[in-house]
């Protein structure tokens, strides 16, 4: 394999790695907005709902219920409307992956 192809492949891999890293960081940024009520990485203080380690599908269903107004809330119905369904899916997956 010539050097040009090797460099092109290496650059492509580095670019893909950087993009994946940026996506992970974006989900962490979104999750940080949840920390006020649900604690850092979803580990809430007593009296608030912890999200860490919960079932991803159940979290997503709750988020969609807030977004559509099926589940009453004081603030969650407003917050969820600020995210796309794909962003909410990423948040649900992030919190589900956190250790309880």
Description:
By secondary structure, the chain is an all-alpha fold. It has one domain (23-97): Cytochrome c-like domain (Cytochrome Bc1 Complex, Chain D, domain 2). Helices cover 65% and strands 0% of the residues. It contains five helices and no strands. It has helices spanning 3-32, 35-38, 56-68, 76-80, 85-97. The chain starts with a helix and ends with a helix. The mean pLDDT is 87. This is Cytochrome subunit of sulfide dehydrogenase. Keywords: Electron transport, Heme, Iron, Metal-binding, Signal, Transport. It comes from Tepidimonas thermarum.
Q: Mean of residue pLDDT?
A: 87
Within the CATH hierarchy, at the fold level, what is the topology?
Cytochrome Bc1 Complex, Chain D, domain 2
Quick one: CATH class? Mainly Alpha
Instruction: Examine the secondary-structure arrangement and name the CATH architecture.
Output: Orthogonal Bundle
For this structure, what is the CATH homologous superfamily?
Cytochrome c-like domain
Largest sheet: none
Spatial gap, N to C terminus: 48 Å
Rounded to an integer in angstroms, the radius of gyration calculated over CA atoms is: 18 Å
Please give a quick description of this structure.
This is Cytochrome subunit of sulfide dehydrogenase. Keywords: Electron transport, Heme, Iron, Metal-binding, Signal, Transport. With 100 residues, this protein is mainly α.
């Amino acid at each position: 394999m010539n050097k040009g192809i090797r460099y092109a492949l290496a650059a492509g891999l580095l670019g893909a790695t950087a993009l994946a890293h940026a996506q992970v960081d974006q989900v962490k940024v979104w999750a940080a907005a949840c920390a006020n009520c649900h604690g850092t990485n979803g580990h809430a203080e007593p009296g608030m709902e912890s999200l860490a380690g919960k079932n991803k599908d159940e979290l997503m269903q709750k988020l969609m219920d807030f977004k559509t107004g099926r589940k009453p809330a004081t603030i969650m119905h407003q917050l969820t409307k600020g995210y796309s369904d794909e962003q909410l899916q990423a948040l649900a997956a992030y919190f589900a992956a956190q250790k309880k």
